[in-house]
């Protein structure tokens, strides 16, 4: 899901960077309103948690294992705006310090993983779990469904971003200048692998973690952010 | 059966390896950043701006040859900065560029990219034609990605993380965000060690995990437990910050000191970028 440098044109990167600026500003205001001076340690530790989720490998059917992105889980735990900032921080560290995901593509990566993924997932979760008691299994199902739709929506966005490159940026003889596949290839390739494989890893991790947190700390799901 | 069981236990090894890889990577990068070399001797602000200018040039140019020149420059800079070239090449070429080669392979053929044929072949009765736009596009794509990855890795290998985070301020990133990033980075060490310890404990107590569900349960329970520990910790850290006089207005100390050499280097870097853009325009 992390888009490296060179897959998207500088203009596409610029557009997504510009789109993210008001989102980050709104997220900062929303977080400052609810957390006040508490926000820095809270978000720093939330960001570190969202980074660390990727270190946990989960066994998946077929005998293999994979890791989850955990964006929807972070949104359920922190709220969508705080999750937006926490995931952005994690993505910046990954891009700047570990070369995972491009620096020029940071706007597009944040749009997909720090905005679309947590917001779609969080609102699907809220829609399904609305009115349910804090310890209900409907919340577990809602968390799983939110994770699945969230990651698939983010994959669809990444597919569209890749797919528009050869349409917009090519030479006179048809040579693609950036990501070489059009929408007909890029969207199915990105979405199918998330619908069939990675989406389910996300479902397992998000639903089971919510289930365990219900058992350990059910107060957390009573009112508040979740 | 034994193989299947071992496979199912791979998630423990993989989780431990992920945590260890993070710690190893972070330690190794600090080691290179502390060495004496050309890039290490530059003011981090000037170095970051110059390498980002090279990166922007690499992603904007439309000629593989010109991007190749930037890649050559990147290797020279690695040599001058005491970064072992073999390790640098392994780190920069093995993952993203290799993955990109796999992605771009089908575009070499006329079926995906029609155009002037450059080479045709027949294997097991199946014929294939490589086209000029396909080959040119694939070469440009891979060279650009290899160069971009190399420039970013060069920056992270030759700059201490604390300095790199301070440079974010120079780029106009709000102070509160920079402080959050720097605090997050410190906690990553702690959490990576925590993940490693968790799975070492799981391995020593459980041994081989034979059921997939059991494995999933172990991992997700540990994620939930890590979350509980992080929320506790955020409260404690907040209290500690308050007790040291934190009022919600973070202050970062800036110790950067630009020398004439930094200005000369930045000027050279900008001239190189302008030259490459100009060459790309007239080619």
Describe the protein's topology.
The complex is a heterodimer of chains A (226) and B (283).
Chain A: H1 10-35, H2 39-53, E1 57-60, E2 64-67, H3 71-78, H4 80-98, H5 106-129, H6 137-163, H7 165-168, H8 183-216
Antiparallel strand pairs in A: 1-2
Chain B: H1 2-33, H2 38-41, H3 44-60, H4 64-80, H5 85-93, H6 96-104, E1 117-123, E2 126-131, H7 132-158, H8 161-170, H9 175-206, H10 212-243, H11 260-282
Antiparallel strand pairs in B: 1-2
Helix pairs in contact in B: 1-9, 3-7, 3-11, 4-7, 5-7, 6-7, 8-9
Task: Report on this structure.
- The complex is a heterodimer of chains A (226) and B (283).
- Chain A has eight helices and two strands; from the N terminus they run H-H-E-E-H-H-H-H-H-H.
- By secondary structure, chain A is mainly alpha-helical.
- A two-stranded antiparallel ribbon of chain A has the order 1-2.
- In chain A, a hairpin with a 3-residue loop joins strand 1 and strand 2 (64-67).
- The longest helix of chain A is centred in the C-terminal third of the chain and has 34 residues, at 183-216.
- The radius of gyration of chain A is 18 Å and the shape is globular.
- By secondary structure, chain B is mainly α.
- Chain B has one domain.
- Chain B has helices at 2-33, 38-41, 44-60, 64-80, 85-93, 96-104, 132-158, 161-170, 175-206, 212-243, 260-282, and strands at residues 117-123, 126-131.
- In chain B, a hairpin with a 2-residue loop joins strand 1 and strand 2 (126-131).
- The N and C termini of chain B lie far apart (62 Å).
- Residues 1-6 of chain B have low confidence and may be disordered.
- At the A-B interface, helix 1, helix 2, strand 1, strand 2 and helix 4 of A face helix 1, helix 3, helix 6, helix 7 and helix 8 of B.
Tell me the number of strands of chain A.
Answer: 2
- Indicate the low-confidence ranges of chain A by residue numbers: none
Largest interface: A-B, 72 and 93 residues
Number of helices of chain B: 11
Q: How many structural domains of chain A? A: 1
Classify the beta-strand content of chain A into a percent band.
under 5%
- Determine Rg of chain B (CA atoms, Å): 24 Å
Element order of chain A: H for helix, E for strand: HHEEHHHHHH
For the largest sheet of chain B, list the strands in their spatial order: 1-2
> Which fold name corresponds to the CATH topology of chain A?
Arp2/3 complex 21 kDa subunit ARPC3
Range of strand content of chain B: under 5%
CATH class call of chain A: Mainly Alpha
Mean pLDDT of chain B: 80
Under the CATH scheme, the architecture of chain A is: Orthogonal Bundle
**Cα end-to-end separation of chain A:** 26 Å
Structural class of chain B: mainly alpha
> What Rg of chain A do the Cα atoms give?
18 Å
What fraction, in percent, of the residue positions of chain A are helical?
Answer: 55-70%
First-residue to last-residue Cα separation of chain B: 62 Å
Task: Estimate the mean pLDDT confidence of chain A.
Answer: 84
What is the count of β-strands of chain B?
2
